[in-house]
Each structure stands twice: as structure tokens, then as C-alpha cells.
Design brief:
globular; 4-stranded antiparallel β-sheet
Length: 426
Amino acid sequence: MVHKNTTISWLVSGVSLALLSSMVMAAGPNTTTVRQVITGLSPFPCAPTSNTASSHPVLNSEVEPDLDVALNPASPLSPPIVVAAWQQDRYTRAGGANDIYMRVSMDGGATFGSMIPMRNVFCFGGRFERSSDPRVTISSNGIIYFVGLGFDHATDPNAVSIARYDLATQSFIDLTELNAVKGIAQPTATDFSKLTVEPNDPSGNTLYLTWDRYFQGSYFTGNPHVLSDRGKLYFSKSLDGATWSQPKPIFNTYTDLASQYAPDVQVSGAHIVLANNSKTDQFSRLVDLMGVQTGLVNPDVSPHNFTEVVTSDNQGTTWSKPSVVNPDGLVGTAVNPEHYDASQDFITNHSNSQVIRSGDAVDQADVDRTRNLIYSVIQEHSLIYDHTPCRIDLYVSKDGGTSWTLIGPVNRVLSTQAFNQGIAVL
């Protein structure tokens, strides 16, 4: 019998999302690499609904891709299922896109089906002007969970959207919205959702979902002493794949960090991974990592970017106190080298330096369940904070996320900036 090991990776080239598929045949040395460009002209059929004088969608652009690969539950020896998602027509200001889309391949990435929208925006009968933060997860029961955020750019309605797509029928089952907000006087924002399937449940119906919600402060008021984007990390779970528990905060910057960093602290970048549970083999230990940024607006607070971790051994009923992955908390802001002035202090004056939007607030992690090791990659250092090029540092936890050890940078040329980290344990 010939076995295939399939490695899938993605990259962004111009305005097209490209997918690289390498098929390695165990029976021979030959390797075939196929480059698939799976996006093109915008498929969005409606006129933009939230244009302003300073914000409009960039048509035919695709950003923030996400990808998942899984065995075909109907035919495990067949090529794997590949699903890719992205933001379609990203807006120039205030975030989001016309909608988020996905495409599905049933043959390991050789061919892809049509572009499928999330449908949580006005154009398709949804509730929101814009959609953002696409995440796709393939469950062992043949359901794709397509997760994103829906929101209006100038008012407060926003929510986490979860669409279930049935691979057997090639159609959506339903669309659920969690933690919907409307009518709050202080502007709020929902961000960084992440869904994970419990591997110890053979039905594929046990799911865990995290996201953050913050109150928008000084970024919008212009006053650095006003509360700046403080918020909470939320959690919800599903035991049947269809209904979800009442969302609850599992990390609160007001109570967990306010005494240490007030008034300038923000939580962002929720990323949940599953480790072996030493107390039971019925379900996994939940390990939730998040970025905690301090002092990025308030000049009275030193700038830091910590990665904090909370864990749960009872499927999210209770959570541990937060622990810190990177105690130095080095801010990893990337800078355009053609627009950088080393003589300026970024906190008080950075008019001659141009920041690159990158992954400094987006924590990434994965688990080696065979050895029960958790790895996290963090973007640290910055030319504008400590005059050191940003790099990607690798950390490991050997005790289920309680304590962490720095292994070192993964980029070899430390004199060149490295950013937008990612990690996968194979």
C-alpha cells in the first residue's frame, strides 16, 4: 500500500491567497509541489454598506488567511480535506471586510470548490456591515466550523458568528451568534476568536471557543489618560456542536491586572490549545494564551507585551490564575526600515518612524501531545522601544502551561526583523 504524507502551507502574494501543497510519496523519492492560487476578483455581489470619507473597502484584496487540514471522515485513506478562509475586500480604516470567505478542497488541495461567504453581513441577510477574523476548523464528524466576527464600524453592534458547514451536503446547517452587544454607551469591540475541537470526543461535537472583548478608550478619545482598551477574555463551549453555553469571562483586565498596570492595559489575541489532562482522560486540559499589552498609549506606564496563560481541567467550569510566558514582556513592534528614526523616543515622538502592523499582539501556540509539551512563539523586541530588531522567540511548557522556559529565537539572522509568527507541531 502506498501512503501519502501531505503538508499544506499558505502565503499571501500581492492580493491573492496562494496555497502550496506538497505530496510526499512514501513509496518513492519523488515530490510534487503544486501552487494553487485560490482567490482572484472579489466575489462580493453588493455595494459596500459602510463607506465613509476615511474608510472604504479595497476591492479584490484578501488578508488574514486561515487554514485547516484533516482526514476525510468518510474515506480516511483518501487525500485529506483542506479548507482555507480569508477576509474579502478589507476596509482601509476601523477594520473588517465586506465579508469573510472560505473554499474547500476534498482532494488534498489539488482542486477547490466555489468561494463561500460567511453570510453574517447585510448583503446576505445578516445583521452587520462588516465581517472579520476568519477561522476554520474541521471536525471529525465532517462539519466545518466557520468562525468570524460581525460588527458595524461606527456603532456598537458586534458578535462572534459561528457557521456550521456540512461536507456531506456541501451546504450550511445554521449560523449562531454569541455574545452579541447592542446599546452600550461606551464603544466595545469583539476580537480574536478561536475554536478548538476536543480530540477525546469521538463524536466531534465537543467544542471550545474563546475571544476577547474590550472597551475602546484612548485610541478613540485621543486622551492618553483615559482607560485604554481594557477588556475581558471570554469562553463558551458546546457539547452537541449546535448549542453553546452562556459566554463567561475567564480573564478580566479590570480585576486580574488593574492594580499592576492601571490605567493602560489591553487584552488581545486569544488562542486556545488542548493538552493532556493529568486528572482525567475523558477531556483535555484547556490552555488559553492571550496577549496583554500595557503602556502603549499612556506615557506614565512602561510599554510591555506579556503573554498570559489561564488553564482549566474541567472543560472550562473553573480557570486558574494567570501565569506569564515571557516575564520580560518585550514589545515586538515591527518598523518599516525605510521610515525609521533611531533618535526619536517612540512613546513621546515617533513622527519619523512608521510602524508595520504585524503579529506582536497575536499569540500562537501548539501542543506535542505525545510528550505533553506546549510550545508558544512570541514576537519580541522592537527598534522603536529597545533599538533591537524584532524577532520570534520560542517558549516551551512541560507542566501543562503553568510555567514556561525560553528556548531562544527561531529566526537565525537576528539583525533582520522577523514578525508574523506561527507554529504547528506535526
